[in-house]
Amino acid sequence: MEPASRPQPAVSRPFEVTHGLVLSIAVPMTLGFLTTPLLGLTDTAVVGRLGQAEALAGLAIGAILFDLIYGSLSFFRTATTGLAAQAFGRADERELQAVFWRATLSALSLGALMLALAPVILWAAPDLMTDDRSVQAVVRDYFAIRVISSPATFLNYAILGFVFGRGQPKFGLALQILLNGTNILLSIILGLWLGWGVAGVAWGTAAAEVLAAAVGLALVIRRFSPGSRPTKADLLDRYKLKQLFQLNADILIRSLVLNGAFALLTKVGSSFGAVTLAANAVLMNIFMLSSFFLDGLAGAAEQLSGRAVGANYRPSFRRAIKLTAVWSFAMAGVLAAFFLLFGQPIIQLLTTSPEVREIAIAYLPWAAMTGLAGALAFQMDGVFIGATWSREMRNMMLMSFAAYCLALLTLVPAYANHGLWAALNLFLLMRGVFLAAMVPRKTAQSFIAAQ
């Protein structure tokens, strides 16, 4: 089969980008993202009530293990969002369906690979993460159960990415509420009421993933037009498959480098002693909370920029960048003010150690500013993913990481932990600036004259 040529829309398909449209996408996505920490809190509370330290430690390690694996492979959601948004902007129903089925097949293939590798991970990972035999046993039990639902987990990534790209954030929110709500309910019933402990929490998570995938798949397919069903040639189009692979690979590299930057932050922070390391860990929760809110606006930037590129309508693209930037910085400013004003009570809630509290409060302003420093980076990530400018996003991440390492080498010896937090804020700021500098050139390349 000969590769298809890159689709170029013959005409522009104008649509209006308003503040209301931005918020109609960002708010449901933000609410959906905020259901995730509730799940972690519930699982911890359920196992914590068992009164077994090894069970709680095993759950924590098992959850981290899955976060590392699934988090690194969650590129399916963002890649699918960008491709679906562009097909939606072109009003190309056949390609929209083809995007979904390619993502679905890729997700199921990755899930099968995860199952094949599970014995190796199960054998090696617990020993690498803890020396306690009883904790290792809990981790293995938890992992062995949760890994069963890997195909469903990756399918949920594909489904959510598709509905967000299709401009259906409320549908995506409903699926996330179903997934996390069912997970919480089953974890309580199986883990606490029936006394299954960590195994009950794992079974609750696995069952919720399968249920959400089945419901999401049925509802998405139900909305497809039979007359626009893609052919086998459409699904196996070599250009499209190459585009999907390249997009996924670039986003994966970007995610791995980003996680590496945070890991390096922890590594360098450990040199200041256990108390400072603990204080930094507490303060990183402030950054993570900020990211949940900014991720919703990044999602709006993904959908609207992708739709504008697909529609070949530059005014909407520019308007989407402008409005999502305004709301991202406004949200970041509110978050910074909130954490500056109420950061101390939050720190006191997160730790009871007087020493950790004292150090965390001393460095609180740095943590409070991470949202503002990263607002442009979050928004630009959304724009670049939606426009499928993944190569440039990957390259700018690598450049920012190199600058971050230089900042660590320069600032940490001179200013210790203050230098560490300054380097993190500079890293976040540089990511946004480097990406924004690429926008004019990439915009000129992506939009062609309407015919």
TrEMBL record:
Keywords of this entry: Membrane, Transmembrane, Transmembrane helix, Transport
Transmembrane segments: 21-40, 55-78, 99-123, 143-165, 177-196, 202-224, 277-299, 320-343, 363-384, 396-415, 421-439
Subcellular location: Membrane
Record's keyword annotation contains Transmembrane: yes
Primary location group: membrane
Topology with respect to the bilayer: Multi-pass membrane protein
Entries under InterPro entries matching the protein: DinF-like, MATE_fam, MATE_MdtK
Similarity section: Belongs to the multi antimicrobial extrusion (MATE) (TC 2.A.66.1) family.
The name this protein goes by in its record: MATE family efflux transporter
Source species of the chain: Pseudorhizobium halotolerans
